[in-house]
Amino acid sequence: MALHLGEEAPNFTAETTDGTIDFHDWKSGSWAVFFSHPADYTPVCTTELGKTAALQAEFDARGVKTIAISVDPIEDHRGWAPDIGDVGGTDLNFPIIADPGKRVSELYDMIHPGEGDTSSVRSVFIIDPNNKIRLTLTYPKSVGRNFDEILRVIDALQLTDKAPVATPADWQPGDRVIVSTMVSTDDAKARFGLVEEVKPYLRWTPAPKV
Ligand code: BEZ
What we know:
seven-stranded mixed β-sheet, alpha+beta, 2 domains
């Protein structure tokens, strides 16, 4: 069954390269990026996990834990891990779940029959500290994901959780933002100072300090 934004991310226990975890206990109070890859010892996946390892300081700075999953067994994850370090330049520094029984992959709807075989597609779940699903992405097996985009979304979610604003197309941290339609222009001026009204429903304000 598909999982929706705002729903609780289902809990599970699973074997990982860092030992057995209870997912909710493992992330306890942190944000998490939970992402699937089709198979170990494959080129696109090696670059994706290498990039995630290289970006670990960026995830840490935002209070985000990362965890990957595939339907390969734990021995394959352990054997493949050095390749991830070789290719990405940083040793594997986050857990990979072994899901040969496909229990967790099916719980998160990560196996799409139209995508060739019974391995997982490239799913991404961004999950907040309250275990709510805040973003889902599904990429085909042939297309590697953009992990800078995942960081950008986390920045936008963390900002829009703290202030009544939304982020426009192609927003980058530090750019101006859009005042929430729930806030009157007078209230926005009182709160943010500068507000530029382009349309009654489109009002810009500089990036708020939160
Ligand atoms: C890859 O990671 O390179 C890959 C895995 C499964 C299908 C296609 C590509």
